Amino acid sequence: MKIKTEKSTLVFNAAGYTFLTILSLLCLLPFLVIIIGSLTSENEIIAEGFKLIPDRFSFDAYRAMFTNPIQIYRAYEVTILVTVVGTALGLFLTSMAGYVLSRKDFKFRNGLSFYIYFTTLFSGGLIPWYILIVNYLNLKDNYMVLVIPGLLSAWNLILMKNFMKSIPDSIVESAKIDGAGDFAIYLKLILPLSTPGLATIGLFMALAYWNDWFTANLFITSEHKFPLQFLLYKILASASVLKTNIAGNLSPDFKPPTETLKMATAVVVTGPIILLYPFLQRYFVKGLTIGAVKG
Amino acid sequence: MNRKIAKRMSAFVPLTLTAALLAACSGGGSGSGLSNNGAASPSAGGNDGSSPSASAPAADSGKPDTSKKVELVWYVLGDAHQDTPKVLAEWNKRLEKDLNTTVKLNFTSWNEWQSKYNLLLASGEKVDMLFASSWADFYKYAKQGAFMDLTGLLPKYAPQTWEEVPKDDWDTATVGGKIYAVPNTNPEYTPNGIVYREDWRQELGLPEIKDLDSIEAYLDGVKKGKPGVTPIGGKAWNEVYTLFTDYYDFKVYGGESGVIASTSYDKPRDIVVYPFTSQFEEFVKRMKTWADRGFWASNTLSSQTEAGDLIKAGTGAVYWRNAPGAGGFITDVSKTNPDYKLGYFPYTRFHNYAIPTLPMANAMAVPKSAANPERSLMVLDKLRNDPTYFRLMTYGIEGTHYSIEADGKTIVTPPAGATVAKDWKNYDIASWGWRYKPNMLDQKGSWEGLKALNEEFAAEAKPNIFDPITMDYAPVKAEQAAVNQVIKQYGQPLMMGLVKDPDKALETYRSKLKAAGVDKILAYVQEQANAYFDEKGIQ
């Protein structure tokens, strides 16, 4: 059976879709400029600026980047490894902690929650953190330093806890009556029921790991351990140092990367993570609302 | 069917949008997440955890003991070259044989190198030697006790360097009577100046550039004679700002974010706030006429384009460079645009004297927390003075990165006879800290004018009396931040002639500076500078 659509609804829908499509296209524009910029010839950018339709296409930037692709491949490996391991481990820890905190029969849950929440308000700051990792944990220039600090974040924990609170107690109770242990309940019941929450937090974590260049900047010194984003920042930073007073000391051979190379690097680095979104989209809308209540 | 596709499409597009938004948000999120974790860490003090043997030199004379194998950690600024691991492997092979030592050379990269540098020194991490410089806050850190006192160690562990570095150079590395760093030995002149299109000047019959009027005539001639060319393209701030300070011989304190200056080299104690001088008034009026005649674009302050790139693209005519930088740029252009002819006018010719860079502008220092300062100094001694070591670490591997001409003093890059890729890069790391003039090689094909310029500068050199004055502005921090803001908001547009009425804008600028508390900074700078001049006996 076909439901008849009113004419006014039809017009409204048409107008709405057109408007949203135009708006979305406008939002895509900057990214398009990056892609096209990476394909334009360098001289044209300098002389005439960025254009949507360049006079001459050129693959020089990509060629330059992939003449020595080992570093990029290597950086991809590091980033993917860190993201996968970090997200999987992080999700496991976050969901376990969240589950414990959401159980009403856990006596210290409020105190512990506050203890965790407290760290979002007051943090030790950069230098103590640096000293802890370098001098006490001896993690300098170690892959683990890229993974460990991001494993548990107070914000994700609170999100997880609130999400799990929405799972009715009776489910846990019934499982208990059937003879399931705490870990079995967590693994067999709570986890499957929390998929939207897990997907959202997983996405947050994956993004945080993927985009994290700061930890690598501070702690990683060996070139072959650089993650992808740090490689990108390194290229951009070497361009901006020319504008500071150090420029006088740099050797005359020091050449900043060309505009096109910057764009091409951005494309290569952003590409994969954008593809992740469509797959997680269906969890995403649902997941977003779980952040609505905090604390 | 069509509708279905349309529906899918329209659902997809906003989704991508959200994706982009979230990608942007999460960048900040990851940072805060990290500091959250940091919160749980115990707050530790300065140098605990690692109080290594900062042992004074052993009493025995003669050769230092190298029987124990040691691995050192060194830091320099900037990025490694693609082949750095190969070079280091070679270096370590030699070091192990000669000194029973290996060095792990780390690079800070240019991302936030200042905060990283700060962390290295503040955390007491085990670093045996790192790059230090007057512009990287050497004097501040030395005063705070971040570096190890090398006075007693140098004669024993770096005897050759100790002999060869002149006393005056050691003085610049001395704070409170103690030597805290080994300055480089490479007298250099880096005065401001402009690179310009000499071929256009001749073609258009313009006067030779030798003073401010001829610069103006050149800019005007190019603007009129070459349609489509903006004489100073892109960001013209450097060109104009340095023209101001050097033309009137103002010696500005605190870089371009400062407004306090000595009125000239000969009157260092006459310290003023330069926007209040009649010279400044004269200058901004002149710049107003320059801007109106289109010598630079009206968006020049926000432009991120390098004027040099525009010269290469054929739409620019003037580029600010210091003398060695000009040499590099002119060499570069001779490859990309062989039909161009470029000239260089150093601003030193306004007043006919040049100031060499401070030896402490590039140096190597040992942090307080170093585990093996003795061995580190021995390596440095070897690195500076042994040509094979020096060449390896400065120019790379012979045959792979360079070859030496028959005269033994000139290097060729890429090496003679080698075929290299289009984007081949010279071997180049931040080797500034161990520069030692007798070991440095000239590069073939570099701009010949630089040699003549250096001779010109050396002949008219005056001692560098301004750079060693170090101020941390701690007591006037708030005022300084306010003044910086005023400079950006009112000062820069005024100096670039981008205001409607210069008289009025100047008045506003002055009153805003007063309101921001510039007098307090003036008093602070006067006090600090005069204290230094008293100490050194400069009148």
From TrEMBL, chain A:
<dbReference type="Pfam" id="PF00528">
    <property type="entry name" value="BPD_transp_1"/>
</dbReference>
<feature type="transmembrane region" description="Helical">
    <location>
        <begin position="185"/>
        <end position="210"/>
    </location>
</feature>
<feature type="transmembrane region" description="Helical">
    <location>
        <begin position="260"/>
        <end position="280"/>
    </location>
</feature>
<keyword id="KW-1133">Transmembrane helix</keyword>
<keyword id="KW-0813">Transport</keyword>
<keyword id="KW-0812">Transmembrane</keyword>
<dbReference type="GO" id="GO:0055085">
    <property type="term" value="P:transmembrane transport"/>
</dbReference>
<dbReference type="GO" id="GO:0005886">
    <property type="term" value="C:plasma membrane"/>
</dbReference>
<feature type="domain" description="ABC transmembrane type-1">
    <location>
        <begin position="76"/>
        <end position="280"/>
    </location>
</feature>
<keyword id="KW-0472">Membrane</keyword>
<dbReference type="InterPro" id="IPR035906">
    <property type="entry name" value="MetI-like_sf"/>
</dbReference>
<feature type="transmembrane region" description="Helical">
    <location>
        <begin position="143"/>
        <end position="164"/>
    </location>
</feature>
<dbReference type="InterPro" id="IPR000515">
    <property type="entry name" value="MetI-like"/>
</dbReference>
<feature type="transmembrane region" description="Helical">
    <location>
        <begin position="12"/>
        <end position="36"/>
    </location>
</feature>
<feature type="transmembrane region" description="Helical">
    <location>
        <begin position="78"/>
        <end position="102"/>
    </location>
</feature>
<comment type="similarity">
    <text>Belongs to the binding-protein-dependent transport system permease family.</text>
</comment>
<keyword id="KW-1003">Cell membrane</keyword>
<feature type="transmembrane region" description="Helical">
    <location>
        <begin position="114"/>
        <end position="137"/>
    </location>
</feature>
<protein>
    <submittedName>
        <fullName>Carbohydrate ABC transporter permease</fullName>
    </submittedName>
</protein>
UniProtKB/TrEMBL annotation, chain B:
<feature type="region of interest" description="Disordered">
    <location>
        <begin position="33"/>
        <end position="65"/>
    </location>
</feature>
<dbReference type="InterPro" id="IPR022627">
    <property type="entry name" value="DUF3502"/>
</dbReference>
<dbReference type="Pfam" id="PF12010">
    <property type="entry name" value="DUF3502"/>
</dbReference>
<protein>
    <submittedName>
        <fullName>Extracellular solute-binding protein</fullName>
    </submittedName>
</protein>
<keyword id="KW-0732">Signal</keyword>
<dbReference type="InterPro" id="IPR006059">
    <property type="entry name" value="SBP"/>
</dbReference>
<dbReference type="Pfam" id="PF01547">
    <property type="entry name" value="SBP_bac_1"/>
</dbReference>
<feature type="domain" description="DUF3502">
    <location>
        <begin position="470"/>
        <end position="532"/>
    </location>
</feature>
<feature type="compositionally biased region" description="Low complexity">
    <location>
        <begin position="33"/>
        <end position="61"/>
    </location>
</feature>
<feature type="signal peptide">
    <location>
        <begin position="1"/>
        <end position="19"/>
    </location>
</feature>
